[in-house]
Amino acid sequence: MFPRAEPEITIRTGKETIECKLLCALSRRTPLYLSPDGEAIVVHRFRLGIRTLLRHLVCTRYAFGEGDKKIFLIVPVPRNVYGTLGDDYYSVFSGDRIEDRSFYHMTTFLDALELDTLE
Fold first, then answer.
1. Which is it for strands 17-24 and 9-12: parallel, antiparallel or unpaired?
2. Predicted TM-score of the model (pTM)
3. What are the CA-CA distances from residue 112 to residues 5, 56, 103 (Å)?
């Protein structure tokens, strides 16, 4: 899911540093869970027709540096992205925040970067 633990993209402007972490989903059907303690979980399902035969969890650690803004970018965007809080989870949408990190789809991120409206 992550090629490395550190941010892949760092953007430095005159006033701030933006760190971006690329998330990779294998397909739009693959749900993604992001925890505030630095762990991302992808649930792979092996199906035969409409029946799920097997579920396999892939857990990956992530980290950000000391940038002013910390951003998750996901490609391709799965249908379901969740933030976790203990045993509970909630849906995450483009522009939402998870702790001190923001979650963006690539097109929303590029639009917000151009308009200087990144949260």
1. antiparallel
2. 0.76
3. 25, 35, 12
